[in-house]
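Two proteins were folded this term; both appear here.
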Amino acid sequence: SLYNGASYQNTDGRKVLYLNGSLHSYAETPALPIRAISFSIMCWIKVLSLPSNLPVYIYSDWSEPHQFRIFIQRSYLICANLRKRGGLDRVYLCAGKIIPSKWMHVALTWSREKKEGILYIDGIIQGCWCYAINAAFSVITHDERLLCSNQSRLRKKLVS
């Protein structure tokens, strides 16, 4: 279902969801039991002009407090947020600036077994957040990858 100015349009030879920037313009998608499964959420986005009111939600759920969000935040960074019960952040990553009028592929993967969230932009890992059992949250973004296990953590510089 589409609401408040949301529509489907043909752009660049593809049918796309167009959100016209009006307040509360959105589309509904089927719900998933994200607290009980591993999952990936991905989408292609094309921001026609930089928004003046931030944050701008790209993909989010409606629960209170929200369980997950992919959004545009300060300095026009693409962010991903995944929460555990009670509203505490389990994953919070921001990376990859929005480039107006350019298609960008954004993906968030969550491994329930590894308790690891990874943010990809255009197929490149931009950040990884691992929540190890009996350990605090840990985050590495941009050019480092956090490798996680229940026993240890290791930072490894990505080689380009």
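Next, the second protein.
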Amino acid sequence: MWGATLRTTALVCSAALLGACAQHYGNRVAATSDSFRAGNVDAAIAAQDKAYEGVAPEDRDLLYFLERGELMRMRPGSLQASTDAWLAATDKVKGWEDESRDKLAKSAGDLGALLLSESLSRYDGQDYEKVLLSTRLAQNQLMAGRWDDARVEIRRMYEREALIASLRDKEVQALKDEAEKKGGKSAEVQLKEIKGYPVEIFDDPAVTGLRNAYQSAASHYLAGFVFEALGEPSLATAGYRQAIELRPDIPMLQKGLEGVAAGKRVPAGKTDVLFIIETGSMPARDSVKITLPLPIGAGVKLLTTSYPVIRPARDNFVPASLTVGDSTVPAAQVTSLDAMARRALKDQMPAMVARSMVRMAVSGAAQEALQRNGGAFGSLMSLAVGVGGAINENADTRQWRTLPANISLARAVVPSGTVPVSFGAGPGSLRQEVKVDGTYAVVVLRPLGSQLTALVSQPGSGLVAAAPSAPEPSRRVAHRPAKVTAKSVSKAQ
């Protein structure tokens, strides 16, 4: 009996320590994210280097490479370093993909049991982060003029979305079956009954209006634009339609589809530009402690657990328009990563609640058994279990922090060459000159502090040619009637 009790104690303490490893990500990257938001990219990079000092490159986690890619992307001349970091992140995500395919092969019962026993020792990325990784790699390839490589990343994005959809559908059913098997309420119902948790963060229309936590209209519109530029109208149509289905309330998205249907061609000397405006910063994941009454043995014990919480971003500025040259171009917010993060958390809460109930039940039973049977030594061991639970008071706060909170799109056909671009941001306006070449171009705009960073795609091979120049109107020459002479008349006769 003592052996079983001690094994349970060890299990509880080990789980607590594993959770503790994941708790303090916000503190670890605070200096990095603060410097980045202020526009001091070099200081942000130095802060990240310090945070991972002593960790061998091969031992660095997924978040290191996600953040590194974003930091390097915003530093002039470091585009390839950004791409390399995100390719390293992709390798780590591929490991998750392989494990996910294994999960899909499991029975619902086995998968449900696995979900209730998973620890938090490794971070595999939120679903929207994994999909957005492919989108941002596609953008980097465009900035390097490698449009075909961008196409590869977009196809990878589609494959990743399909895998996530299959996995999450099976997980939801597995958790539901597991709850019914144990004769308990669903975790979703339990969450609503947990007093003290701010469930209102999930009731925001920006969250409830999302189809899921991983597909974004911005990513799919970019896919349509790239396929259109590469002369693949059927794939372009599919990309634009998916964007419209995700955000049917945005008229601008419809215009892209209409252009493909009409066989639109870019005039010679002009460039069709997709502007991607990234504003705000992702809000942090915080931890909220909840005390719950649980029936243990013959009585009820008050046990404390914690859950992550994401409060809406405060810097939620999005531009309504851009000034491009002398023209005003309307802009539309099509993706809120802030809302997607909260939707992802909402989808994760059923499994989190179920796991916390299991942990608390095990912890409570261990404490009661130790106190009842162990005398003074048992009281000490019971205290150890309580300390183990205290270590795990904070929830997992890991999240890709250098992402923007909002993504807006604007599109315009402009004269090829250098053009000034500006938009209002708070009390002032931000301005940058960009040089666009080729028939199609993508310009990513991101304000950091008082600076506006612009990333511009380079023309690549395979882009659709511009429409032929209209021929100049022919000049009509007036012919005077021939002069009739007696000599000409005689010849005619």
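Residues 1-23, 376-388, 479-493 have pLDDT under 50 and may be disordered. Residues 162 and 360 are 35 Å apart (CA to CA). These notes refer to the second protein only.
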